[in-house]
Each structure stands twice: as C-alpha cells, then as structure tokens.
Amino acid sequence: MTETRTEFKLKSPPEDGISSVKFGPNSSQFLLVASWDKTVRLYDVVANNMRLKYSHSLAVLDACFQDAVHSFSGGLDRTLKMYDFNSNSETIVGTHDAPIRCVEHSNEINAVATGSWDSTVKLWDPRSPQCIGTHTQPAKVYTLSLCGERMVVGMHGRKVYVWDLRNMGYVHQRRESSLKYQTRCIKCFPNKQGYVLSSIEGRVAVEYLDPSSEVQKKKYAFKCHRIKEGGTEKIYPVNAISFHTAYNTFATGGSDGYVNIWDGFNKKRLCQFHRYATSIPSLCFSHDGSVLAIACSYMYEHEDTPDNIPEDNIYVRYVTDQETKPK
Question: Is 143 within 8 Å of 156 (Cβ atoms)?
Fold first, then answer.
C-alpha cells in the first residue's frame, strides 16, 4: 500500500493483534495502543515513534488515558494497571474475577470504569487509586461507553443497560439491542442524545436515550460492511466505532477491512476509504477530529487460518472536512 502525506503507518507496531487505539484527551499527537502481545504502547504520531511501552502478564484488551501523563489498562490477566508516563512507573489498582474487556475514563466524575467478563462494571478513583464501586450486570460485558454522566453498557445476550454515574444505586434504563445478533461495540454521540451500536452481522443501530415515543421514533438501523462477491453477499462484523466530536459524524471499522464514515442524523454515508489488508479491530478520532487512527489486525474469525497472516499495523490518517462533515 502506498504511503501518502494524508496516511502513513506507525513504526514499531505491536507484534500481535491490536485490541484498542485511543488518542489522548486533548491531543492529536499521542496515541495509546493495547495489544495481544501483552503490551501497552504510547506513540507520538507526529514524530512517528514509540515513546514508551509497558507490559501485562497476558493479552491487553483495552487501555485509556486518564490525562496527558497517566494511562489505565486491563485484559486477560484480570488486573487493572495505572501507568505514569513521567516516572515510567506502574501501579496495580485492582482486579476483576475474569478478563477486563473495557477501560474508560470519565471526566465528569473523574473515575475510571472497567467492564469485565465477570459480569460486573467497577468504578475506580484514580487519585487513591482504589475501587469505589462494583456494579453487577446481568451478563458478560463486551463494550461500554460514557456519555456525560451516563454510562451505556453492552453485554452478552444483546442486553444494554444505561447507568447514571452520579447515582449508581439502580439501573437507569434496561434496554435490548435492536439488532438480532451479538453486540460488538457501543459509542455515545458527543451531543449525548444517544448511542450507536454495532453487531457481528454487518449492521449498525442508531439509538436515542430519551424514552419518549416522539424521540424513539427516530431510531433506525442499517446494513454495512457487506461485500457482494460472485452472486453471494459476505457479511462481516462491525468491530469499531469512533465519533468526530465536532460534527457528530462517526467512523466504523469492519472485518471486511473497510473504514466508512457516516452522518447518523441524515442517514448518509459520507465516504469509504480504500480497503485495508485485513480486519479493523479498533479506530479512534483525535479530540479535534483532524486525525483518525486505524488499527489493522487479523482477528482469527475464520476456521482456516491463512499461511501468511497479514502483519499488524496502525495507520494514521489526516482527514478532511470533505470526508467527515455532514453535506
């Protein structure tokens, strides 16, 4: 694939599948990457170099920034770690009873939320650091997204719970995915009105949080990440969603190797990038929407593993208004 000024590969990529890419809270320069190679890596995408890496004992499934100099990460070793970039020191914050699948930071309550296959969500105070609440969910947690004071949790069995971070004493809303198949990713709209949910069966749903029937009429779902080949349609999982915070448009990444950008309010696809070598497990817009980081990794979804597995790469793409702004 040719390198251009608008898109390039990061040097020193992880040595196994990439599980998560996230930009820093106020920066389009620093990117945090979690991988099945047991590492968390911090990249400077402007200089195109890896600034640091630290390790877990098993695959890392997610990581997030708390602020510009601290990260949190978790995965198959069931352990939540905090890392200080300035002192290059790590702290074990606590554990779950099963792998940690999602790690997110809330600015609103200055807490870290972790979702686990042990069917709980835990909240952690990064200052102490310690657990400040364990909240039982009805099933394994696959994805969670923070939406101001709200937290939307996607689980096994197509369950979706909406919690209020200021009052975790009860479940705010108990919902079910409007898609028939397993939930892969949920991301909340930057304007906090709702969320986008994707499934393993090439579909995306646009959902609204306001339970009034007037607002619920606006929800819809659409097919995507499907390829017609020789008369048959191949349907791929939609693994990743990321919002452009200024425009409320969003990118999706699928196991078809494509990245699409959508205008959810006007129900339009704005653009599709070229096809990448293999699946897109994660992607992330920078906070100003100027850059999109795209992870590209073979995800072992087929019974037959090819002899030459495509290499794991992270692409950094400088996007334009033409690609991301509603028409």
Answer: no
Q: Spell out the alpha helix ranges (H) of the chain.
A: 213-216, 321-324
Closest alpha carbon to 296 in 10, 47, 62:
10
Tokens 């599948």 belong to residue: 17
pLDDT digits (tens, 9 = 90+) for 139-170: 999 999 998 999 999 999 999 999 999 999 99
pLDDT higher than 90, residue 269: yes
> Tell me, what amino acid is at 89?
S
3-state secondary structure 228-281: EECCEEEECCEEEEEEECCCCEEEEEECCCCEEEEECCCCEEEEECCCCCCCCC
Residues 6+ apart with CB under 8 A from 321: none
CB contact at 8 A, 10 and 314: yes
Q: Distance between CA 174 and CA 170 in Å, rounded? A: 10
Res 179: pLDDT: 96
The Cα 62–Cα 34 span in angstroms is: 6
